[in-house]
Amino acid sequence: MLQYLFQYPVSYELQSVYLYFDTEEQWHSAYDPQKTCKEKEDLIDPTNNQIIHLTSDAPSFEQSVCTKVNVSGEEWYQCTGNRSFYSQRPRWWYLALGNCDSTEGLYLEYSILMTNAKITNRWFYHFSFDEFYALPLSITFMVLELIILILSITFTYMLKARNMLHPTYKLFMHSLIFDLSCTISLWLHYDRYADDGKGFPLLKLIGLMFRQISVVVFVTLLLLLAKGYTITRRVISTSSVFNLLFFTLSFFFCHVTMLIWEILMFDPAKVTYMSESLPAYLLALLRIIAWMWYIRSSVVTVRKYPLKKMFYMSLGFLISFYFWSAPVTLVIANFVLDNWVREEVMLAVESSVVIYGFCTFLVLTNPMPSNKNFPYHVRTNQISQDNYPQHVYEVQYSSTGQTQMSE
């Protein structure tokens, strides 16, 4: 439903509000700057109640009440009313102001409330159809990530007690906390949005930024694991460090650019999603490159340390879905999904993929005795050389407290 209050000086009469819906013959055609005002007006069928004449002489079937009021000694039109929309599918409606006979331009002060359900239905009242389930989805994924965080903290204490809390596990915790911050931010935004239809747009943007950081950290973690860092070696080569640093910075830059692109480059008069931007396609390409890099590095590591074959095979098989999810979902979002479901579907898919990645890592690295894939076999206080021994029992201590390596 559309509820409105329009007011403007009588000297600007006669202004009208035009309601276009999202078809090639309607809004897409009306948005063409080559068309004249009259041509844009003729696109609308007057019998379809798509014109609101802002005058006291407006036809009664428009259900708009316009009166003349005095504002600071000047005569103004003040129009109030509402419109209900019924269609076979969800639509975007575009409101345009026009006066084809004006020589002074246009002027309008307005208050608009557009709702999508009964006022008693807090879950959907203020939400557009493409975000209909945004609030319950954000709550669901926030709760799931809180559960994962509790398990992760439990495993952290277990690893710390065994002196096996390595930097890679700490990176995982950082990635998890960043994404949890994202889901909390989205929940706060959508929860307020359910009340006032505005929410916290800046908080939502910050939350999305947290998610991008989380993804960058997690992909970096996976590449480090593929190199054998903290599993088969204490340090990685200088060239690998520079390559990884360059990739990580490029990955992060594309994520940030994608968000900025959506704000600065996208036309708000068109229905778009950030996956349609150039940085989004670059990110999809980088994810494929990261997957290829991960597989190659894992194969090299397993050749040198065959005892880790089971862990790397399990992780490689499961985590490949994580790497490929971005390019696949981008294609689906841009070329398969309808615009009116894309926002909430992408929120659900992206959040699910993130949680899938976290769960995969958590399951394979959990320190429970039943975990045959547990990757760490050297304690943090036993590190004495760049490459780790094949077995934990190869690390021994002498009576002088120095570390020795047995053959």
UniProtKB/TrEMBL annotation:
Segments traversing the membrane: 132-159, 171-190, 210-229, 241-266, 278-295, 315-333, 345-364
GO biological-process terms attached to the record: G protein-coupled receptor signaling pathway; response to pheromone
Domain GPR180-like N-terminal: 2-110
Gene Ontology cellular-component annotations: membrane
Subcellular location: Membrane
Membrane topology value: Multi-pass membrane protein
Top-level taxon: Eukaryota
Record keywords: Glycoprotein, Membrane, Transmembrane, Transmembrane helix
Domain GPR180/TMEM145 transmembrane residues, every copy: 141-361
InterPro entries to which the protein is assigned, alphabetical: GPR180-like_N, GPR180/TMEM145, GPR180/TMEM145_TM
Protein name from the UniProt record: Intimal thickness related receptor IRP domain-containing protein
Species whose genome carries this gene: Bursaphelenchus okinawaensis
